[in-house]
Predict the 3D structure of the following.
Amino acid sequence: MTRPNMHYADLQESYLFRRIAQRTATYEQAHPGVHLYRMGIGDVSLPLCDAVICALHEAVDDQANAKRFHGYMPECGASFLREAIAAHYASRGVSVDADEVFVSSGASDELGDILDLFDAGSSAMVIEPAYPAYVDANIMAGRPIVHVPACEEEGFLPRPSEAARADVLYLCSPNNPTGAVFNKAQLQEWVDFANQCGAVILFDAAYEAYIEDDELPHSIFEVAGARTCAIEICSLSKTAGFTGTRLGYTVIPKELVRCGLSLNGMWVRNRTTKTNGVSYIIQRGAAAVFTPEGQRQVREGIAVYKRNAQVLMRALDEAGIWYCGGRNAPYLWLRCPDGMGSWEFFDSLLHQIQVVGTPGEGFGSCGEGYFRLSTFGDPRDTVEAARRIEDLLA
């Protein structure tokens, strides 16, 4: 008899956002025609910007022309896109070679696939509350997980310690779900820790475009020593609205070597074996993001979501609710009122004011008693949701 991967039996019954969808669908069935204000899942509401749309159309036309047609793309990414991303790093004072950039179908895919680089017995450290896929991907692989709790008193940004010692260290900044952002000194501590113990940091920078404070780093490679201990995984999903278009990129420095093996070279071998690359059309659309006009248009979209954040922050301030995030991140992480549990608060918002958020418990036990609101919703819906939240909680 074929034996399945029994580690799947160790997973929770269903993924967090599937549970939210099920509860929401049940409510909608009982209340046909009701309008829900969706501040839960981190999906964008604005369309792709004009620069991207024009590039996508041109790329489609290329595929209809025998002289400009493209079949299989380079598995690690087209040179035009890898070079554009490297130039984007350079514009922020970070030196990255084009062949250190790997184009992917999205950060979520890459965060799971990248585990191929590490021995099956390697341990993974996850700071909780955390994006659930960090934990689930390692459970599926049967890896030991070191859970490091983060708390309100330290701004949900714990410092490295012996309790955090593991082979792979997940760091996310700006953080999903808390919106907390590591400053350069805090990241330096983690980089020094990783180099000292030989660990590799998986740095999830999916939300770096939302950082507005100049002193906060957008990339871990702004920190001294990171090139010998870190892999950075980025996404255009929230930066440029690619949630339905799917494109991300990963930076693996050539200096990152373990046991005599280059992780950059290993990843080249992995990608050329396991993928056929991202489509030409999507890569052309992505390259448009890194043009001057693309950057201008993308920042306009981000500004809409940041205004949504300000609307929600004002409502929580008026209601006297503690929260973090919002300023440098597209999420607000709030303390549930009156000692409510996070799923209890979810049901309260859904049934009383038709607002859908994300229960903190879904991000790990440290998230119990907290709640996440996303700023990616329609601006008009966000204004109404904020008004309802303020009225309910005040």
In short: The longest helix spans residues 292-319. Residues 50-291 form a domain with the Aspartate Aminotransferase; domain 2 fold (CATH 3.40.640.10). The chain has a mean pLDDT of 96. The first strand starts at residue 37 and ends at 38.
